[in-house]
């Protein structure tokens, strides 16, 4: 974890490591814990060490945990097995207080030390039942995603792929929100039916998936299919799609929960445990699981589910089955990417798109599946990953298992993909947990910054992180000049949740070629502005509405009373274009942070091969102005802070903006979007709450 943390939006080394960002994610989680929650911390490198056993998170223990997290350091090897063992031991050596238990394993490398010879899954089977669910997080492209996915399946948890720093916040926010919104644990579904019926569960093949078995119930031979569901969340259904066949009858499909009338029955029995929180420090005596049963007649079409809902569940299951075929299970219980038949995958994908039921319906859930499957960029990441072999090798083999996991467990795992975003959308508890965690993460100071947090938020979580039942309880205008700055506040960590911003507040003055100034919101196609290389014309203007967005107020000018509102990672120059920097890097009296609601703007100038022709003087004119980079500036690589493979590519930016549909003034409205790797790759139409560019 010593490697630099990749950050979408700039290619300048940030001085941060993966460990720095993981520590910040850990601090986010810590801050959300209440005195009734417990936290344990295990680190693993060449060796594994328990640096904190499960402790209740009162203020004193929180302070201690925060210091331990901040003091974490990386070591050379990755002894994942020893880390998991110690994580289990942390739970085994503590009292069960009835809370939801989860072990979160974070890693950015391949296990290369202390690996069990027979494999991780066979070794864990000898240790079951595990004392907690097991969630795994793979950071970057060097992880063993197949193993992490299998571990999460065996531990009835979730696997998430974090391609770069731009995704770390949203992934951890959703992971903890799902934990906090847990209604029941150890959920287990048993289906029994006549041996004359052949039942197949459509979906992915997992490390814990079982085949139907013959059993005798009350002297009658029946078939039994057992499905482990793990945790259940408030406000979110869990749905299985079954396909069955019976002698003398045609093949039929049914979604569990449908009502029908016929001769053959299936009995569904669900057992689960509800958490029971006792007094702090007390031991909870586990109660017997709650058991509920129902029966369904299989040979008649369901009347309780709409055709659109049936189509959605069938389509979701078929997508999972297809993606699962790309990562078959090996004898060791680990998923292994099969990249020998990439061309056949393309054909199979095309066939799936042609026949999938979701294409015939126009409700939000079915549309979301089609967007992920083959929608226009920035959507359609399944097709993007599979139809380009280079993409499949680099990020598809990590992204696709993570995406499949979200659909299989029906959880929202990030703000990125339309399909998983449907889960939890009707759960007020999940949404409130997510919003609170978002606020906590966004307001963390950068790594190594000990300035106070914005508002009341703060920090926590770590490399092998063992939270015991994190329970949930359930417009301004920018200042412009002659306003004394408030006390400096720490810059938001939202950089690591959203792509780098490249925008100015709507009232920002821009110097024209004539020497006068005009608010950036009034710029139009053809307007002549001043650049370091002389006068240039505006080609296009991009705008986007934001609410409570963190902007930097940069203080400059001879008097020190002028200020410029700009997003933290929009490169600016204070020395006439000789050097460039990020506003978020300014310290002391040169910058403070504000919250802004309104429009933000970016500008694209006429084509020119000289990078100096792609900057505008903002905030004033003459010595009172600051140079701000414009879109398509031509710097696409290197250590220059302006360098960006998309935002610096004039042709790519121009094509993407043109696709948004400009008005007669050359103004377009859109937002920054990312590809499956989490990198800014284009601009998209704003739909509802959009992610800030």
From TrEMBL:
<dbReference type="Pfam" id="PF13768">
    <property type="entry name" value="VWA_3"/>
</dbReference>
<dbReference type="InterPro" id="IPR002035">
    <property type="entry name" value="VWF_A"/>
</dbReference>
<dbReference type="Pfam" id="PF14624">
    <property type="entry name" value="Vwaint"/>
</dbReference>
<feature type="region of interest" description="Disordered">
    <location>
        <begin position="441"/>
        <end position="491"/>
    </location>
</feature>
<feature type="compositionally biased region" description="Low complexity">
    <location>
        <begin position="457"/>
        <end position="478"/>
    </location>
</feature>
<feature type="domain" description="VWFA">
    <location>
        <begin position="1"/>
        <end position="176"/>
    </location>
</feature>
<protein>
    <recommendedName>
        <fullName>VWFA domain-containing protein</fullName>
    </recommendedName>
</protein>
<dbReference type="InterPro" id="IPR036465">
    <property type="entry name" value="vWFA_dom_sf"/>
</dbReference>
<dbReference type="InterPro" id="IPR051266">
    <property type="entry name" value="CLCR"/>
</dbReference>
<dbReference type="InterPro" id="IPR032838">
    <property type="entry name" value="Vwaint_dom"/>
</dbReference>
<dbReference type="InterPro" id="IPR039510">
    <property type="entry name" value="Vint_dom"/>
</dbReference>
<dbReference type="Pfam" id="PF14623">
    <property type="entry name" value="Vint"/>
</dbReference>
<dbReference type="InterPro" id="IPR036844">
    <property type="entry name" value="Hint_dom_sf"/>
</dbReference>
